[in-house]
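Tutorial, part two.
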Amino acid sequence: MKYRSNDSSRKNIILLIILGLAVGGLMVMTISCAEGVKCTDIKTTFCAIIKELAPASVQPALEDCPTSLIICEGEEIVLYWQGDATLTSNVSIIGPAGEVYDFPISEGFATVTPVISGEWKITFTGEHCRIYKSISIRVIKGPEPYTIVANGNIDTGFFCDINPKSVSKKLIVLAIRSTQCGGTGGFYWENWNCKKTEWNGSNPIFLNITKDDGSANNTQLSGHWSFYPTGMGGTSIYTEKSACFRVTICCEPCNQVPTDIYPTPTPTPWPTRNPYGLSPIL
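Running the prediction step on this input gives:
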């Protein structure tokens, strides 16, 4: 009986040693996996939507979420972010006017009112990685220039889709003219026909465009823009893949005379840190 008792004890000790080694190995594997993660492999998202069209949760928003917005002064947008929950312990958002917001969550959304144009930057922070992303917000405070860049070719026409989620519905086009793409020099075609519709294809507006400013009938900037060169005869001499159009935009009601010269906006003072200043979508 004594021999059997010792033998049983040895078996228990061996089992405990094996179990301990297994648990220890699992811990080492877990730590190694965490430390071996490449920051570039971690998926993160940061974007924004005009509040009026913004979903009330993150996942639906990410299906169509711009990273560049144009809004009118005083308008609200909704910021959306998503990181890896197992690798993100904190999210920090910084606005161009000095706004700073901290969140101890890897996924969320928040409503803000940008006061000046610039980049909104986010930092996803974890134990082993720190990832940065940014989006661009342009705040319109008066008539300002804007360039519509349409892509296509001479046979099918040139097209530009401006998503209403990224552009305020108050923004209208006062004037439009043809211009060079990417600078002041180079060949471009002067005369164009234009068809502009809303995002759903309704309310078509037809425009004749030349190298001089012409009326755009106060059409909304957002929507589908189609451009077709005119006066070329039977020879397709325009070989470019893009066509550019200089427009003057403003927020309704537009009570000022359009101009290409604008004063530098004066930043509105903001608190240096306001972690509770962001409100949920109402």
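Residues 2-36 form the longest helix (35 residues). In part three we will examine how such features are distributed along the chain.
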